[in-house]
Amino acid sequence: MNKLYLYFSWACRLLVGSVFIYSGFVKGIDPLGSAYKFTDYFNAFNANWASGMAFGLSIFQSMIEFAIGAAILLNLKPKQSALGALLFMIFYTPLTFILALTNPVHDCGCFGDALIMTNWQTFWKNIVLTIPVIYLFAIRKKQPTKLHCYEQWAGIGASALFILGISWYATKHLPLLDFRPYKIGTYIPDGMVYPEGAPADVWESKFIYSKDGVNNEFNLQNLPDSTWKFVEAKHLLIKKGYEPPIHDFTISDSEGNDIADQLLSSTNYNFLIVTYNLEKTQIENFEKINQLVDFYTVNEFPVYGLTASTDEQIEKFKEKTGAGYDFYATDEITLKTMIRANPGILLIKEGIIINKWNVNDLPTGEQLVENLLHQSISNYKKQADKYYIYTLILLSILLIAIYLNLRPIVEQQRRRKL
Description:
By secondary structure, this protein is α/β, with parallel strands linked by helices.
């Protein structure tokens, strides 16, 4: 029975710790993405006043999640870590149930862009995860560790600082890992394709008619006779169909013409200056951008400014910065998905994303002209290498945790044989 208890306790720590670590990690490498998701929820629940806290909350949540996961997996401060996990589940499980019922935002964001889950999937995931969390909380006083108190807190602090460092880097530059559909090397048209046989959206249409001052609701199968007066129609999404990774990719000029196809088929190197909101960007960043734009123009590289700001905001921005390139209207969510920077720059050739830069990392004109394609291949390889590096880091943490958790079991069996 004691052996079964040890193995089950270890399995619970492995499951809970791994989920918390993964959730904290994928949020930590993309703090702006998590902040956007917080803002979506605030807007959906008419709490726009809280949007200013979104970025801070995204950093705090990823750091706490990762630290709790590491503590549980490595059996550090078992009482406190089990309590932290339980408080997380007590708060998020009812919340995700409400979100599943109301569905204000289709993607829950619990695993960032690395793993997209619906609100119902998130709720049932939380239900399943709550069971081992409750068990770990119940046995929290029976989980001895041979590490000193300061060593345990040092391990928890180090894990929190690790995520904080990754988040800081992503904010100043770009996320170390890019799980979004606009990552370097992506051929954009492929991401816009609907596979053959893909399920379509299922809609239900309801029609409101009035008669003798009374409104009634009808559907297509039981429409009323001509004595009823039509009031309005409602179209409800019953089931979401397939949605390609890249959608709503439109680039409209001042006359409303969509030039997206023209851009994607261009054989030239095209520079996209992405500023989803001109009023929220830092004006001083555009001095360096304007210098590069002059260099692009001399070398006949097309330059496009993409924004979701209004024409009036664009004109004010041009007056302040002296921007000499044209701006085109693009959906704000699309721009935020394309690059986690405001402003940021994308280099596109024949529909392929060659490179991406935060304004803090802009190359010089000479660096660009040397060999753009070679640079893009190198950057794509570096991006691919990062996936392997961080996978190895997480696997190393997992192996260490397995060793630390199995060691007491092995030692107990050895003593019994002696």
